[in-house]
Specification:
elongated, mainly alpha, 63 residues
Length: 63
């Protein structure tokens, strides 16, 4: 039984990824939505400059 605890990388404590982010057909919108969420979080934490954020956002939107 899993406690549902996740670390900051989106993996549960057993090391299994809990979010299916691979594009296996009709998941392209879900993948880019997840990527945008991660990008927004990184920008909010100050890990990215505005220029880096905007370039990565545009790259994700182009997929």
């Amino acid at each position: 039984m899993s406690c549902g605890c996740m670390n900051h990388s989106g993996k549960n404590m057993a090391g299994h990824h809990t979010d299916q982010t691979e594009d296996t057909g009709g998941n392209a919108g879900r993948v880019s939505s997840s990527a945008i969420n991660i990008l927004n979080e990184r920008y909010a934490r100050g890990e990215l400059s505005r220029e880096e954020y905007l370039k990565m956002r545009d790259d994700i939107a182009a997929k």
